[in-house]
Structures are given as structure tokens and as C-alpha cells.
Amino acid sequence: MSGNDDRGGVPIPPPPPPHPRRSHQAAPRSAPPRAPQPISRQPNPLPSALQVPAPPPAPGSRPPRKRSAPVIALVTLLALIVLAGSAAGVWYLFGPWAERDAVTAVDASQSASDGSDELSRESEAPPRNITSPVGASPWAVALDPATDTAYVTNSDNGTMSVVDTRSGVTRASVPIGSKPAGVAFNAQNDSVYVSDANGRSVTVVDGLSDAVVAVVAVGNGPYAIAVDDATNTVFVSNFDESSVSVIDGRSNQVTATVRVGAKPYGIATDPNTSSIYVTNAGDRSVSVIDAARHSVVATVPVGGEPWGVAVDPQANRAYVTNHADNSLSVIDTVSKSVVSTIPAGVSPVGVAVDPTTSSVYIADHGSNTVTVVDGRSNTVVSSIPVGTNPHGIAVDPAAATLFVTNFKDATFSAIGY
Q1: 84 three-state secondary structure
Q2: Cα separations (Å) of 124 from 32, 111, 397?
């Protein structure tokens, strides 16, 4: 039968005669009865020897390509090898060791004697190893863990870098006098306090807008800064006049000045005892200040040129780096006495502690390492290579990440542990 296509009037050629091995299509149910048709032969279930052979290919057509079983197996094997090699290459290039040359992570099992806490922390916050450029001669670092933000003071170009700790990208650079040094974040009012060692002042930066909101006059040579969150009070060590300035975080006004030892530098708060620990680099001592009465209640002898200090309130310990002795003094905050002295790297400066693991981290300025100390046993468990002249150091326990400023390299490193 022939006819025309409704779409264009093109003649429709008659259908080819049925192939002996192709079954006829069933007629639509609505069609009228038709004369009996010859029964077409279905696919032959008989043995191959009795099956009807396929018709020869049409003239000029390409015969189907036959592949033997060994060839198919070889091609499959080669494909699997290529896929496996590609996956391995991607994993090598972008795996956790991709940045090992820039900064090295420490296994959590090496920094504490009990590994159960570290395993659960690793599943919650995978290690992050990032080294990023910041300003010239980065000095100190403070953290706002709630917003994944780090504040890095750049002592030689008068700025503070505001860094996204997840990506390592600097999102803002805030002008801070002529020599930014110490820095601390005040969670009570979302403010960042930055000392200007040459300007006898502390600059207050709004942590939400990164804008300068106040400049507070303090003593001569202000360096380290610490915040007492319970009382919204800020403490600043004045290196050149042997004093500590006390700033009210609500009004940003100095409310007291406390005399301490010679050349005070490091400063830290102990919330358990409402005490402030101040290292006196000029007389090998640590002054303990009553935060409420603004008076010195104890003086603890330590090593040569005590520099940094960090407090573990859960363990009732304060840790002091002795820059000239290459050591770490451990102070019992209850008895206010040294209970242990631990070897560190060369010229230790900054120190930080993770109370959840009792791990202490020391920035060894002269050996380009971070020494890791087990606070339970007071023993060194590892040493992490970092950038040149590490100086400032801070820890985010929730993210299991250590942050270090590399003074000579003008870089900032985040190290997962």
C-alpha cells in the first residue's frame, strides 16, 4: 500500500517484505478483523546447528566487528588501570599531604597519651593545613572561632590582617599605628584590641565591620594583650615602664595601672582564680595580679627572659616560655610555684594550650619549629616544622587547629592536629 505523508505530501514507499526471522507487528485493537496471516517464525530456541542462518549483509555494508574474549578482557583491564592511575594522581595532588612542604600537621595521637578524644575530634573537624601571605613581620595572632576569623598584627607595615581561617584568604587590612604588636579578641563586645608598641596606645576595632572605633592611651611600649571575658576587662603589658594598663571593655577607658616586674611582655588570664599572669622579661619572674583588686598577689621565679604565657584552667597550670634558656616553666596556679621545667626549641616565644587535650604548643623562634608538649606528663612529644621565625601562636580547640605567625616569611600557617 502507498500514500502521502500528512506533513509534506511525500510519497510513502511500500513496506519491505517481512524477513523470515522478524515477527510481524500485532494489529491495533481497533482495526477490523483481517484475514489470517502466515505465522512468523519466532527466535529459534533450537540448537545452533539447527537454527536458520542469518541473511548475508547488504552489498556495500560494513560487516560487524568481531572481538574475541581475550581482546575484550585486555581492553577492560587497560581501562581499569587508566582509571585507577587517574584517581591515584588526583589523590596525590590534592590529598592531605599536598601542602606538606609548606607546613606539617601533627598526628593527634602524638600530642596526647589518650587517643580516644582526638579520634572523635578528627571526625568532627578534619585537619586544615594552610600557609598564607600576610603583612610584613607578623607578630601576634588572636582568634574569633565563632566566625572562623584570625587577626594577625604586622609589626613592620602598620596593619592588622583579618584572615578567613578556613581558606587562608585575607579579607581586610586594618591600619594600626606604626608598630602593631599584641592582639586580643573580646567576645563580650565583638571587638579586637591591638597594641601599638611605638604609639603608647591600643586601637579598638569593630569585629563585625573591621573599622577602627576607638584609640585608648596606655603606658609606654605596650605589647601583649589579654581579655577577661567574665568581667569584660582588657589587660595590656607596658614593656618600657614595667606596668599593666587595665581597660574597661564597655567604655574603652583605662581604669587602673598596676606596677609589675621589669620589662613585662606576655600576659594571660586565669578565669578559675580571676588572676592575670604577666611575664617579666627583665627580671626572670612572673607577676600574678588579682583581677578584681588590681594588685600583685604573687611573684614566681622562672627562667631567663620569660616571654610568652598561656593558662590551662582545667589543669590549674600556667606555661611560660623562657626565651634565653630554651625552656618552658610549668606553674601550679593554686600554689603559684614552678612544678616542672621542660626543654623547648631554640629561643621560644609564643605559647598556647588546648585544655581539651592538655597539649601545649611552643613557637620556637630560632629553630623554625613548634614544640608539642603533653601537659599531663610534662614531656615533649613532637616537633612540627613551620615557617621562618615563628612568633605568635594560638589554638582553636573546637576546630583542632593551631595557628602560627612566621615572622621572617610574612606568612600565617594553620595546622590541623
Answers
A1: helix
A2: 72, 18, 12
Q: Are 227 and 234 in contact (CB under 8 A)?
A: yes
Which residue type is seen at 182?
G
Q: What is the CA radius of gyration of the chain?
A: 37
Arithmetic mean of pLDDT over the chain:
80
Work out how many domains the chain is built from and give that number.
Answer: 1
Give domain status of residue 408, yes or no. yes
- Give the CATH number for residue 253: 2.130.10.10
For the stretch 368-417, pLDDT in tens is: 999 999 999 999 999 999 999 999 999 999 999 999 999 999 999 999 99
Looking at the predicted structure, is the pLDDT value of residue 50 above 60?
Answer: no
Cα dist. 55→22, 122, 290 in Å?
Answer: 12, 67, 103
List % helix, strand, coil for the chain (3-state, nearest 5). 10, 45, 45
pLDDT, one tens digit per residue, over 311-355 is 999 999 999 999 999 999 999 999 999 999 999 999 999 999 999
What is the extent of the structural domain holding 411? 108-416
Burial of 311 (0-12, 13-18, 19+ CB in 10 A): buried
In a domain, 75, yes or no: no
* DSSP line for 370-389: EEEEETTTTEEEEEEE-SSS
Q: Is residue 308 part of a domain?
A: yes
- Give the N- to C-terminal CA distance of the chain in Å, as an integer: 81
CB-CB contact of 333 with 318 (8 Å): yes
Within a domain: 82: no
The three grid cell numbers given for residue 354, joined into one nine-digit string: 588546648
What type of residue sits at position 309?
V
Q: Which residues lie below 8 Å from residue 140, measured CB to CB, with a gap of 6+?
A: 152, 153, 181, 182, 183, 224, 350, 391, 392, 405
| pLDDT score of 17 more than 80 | no
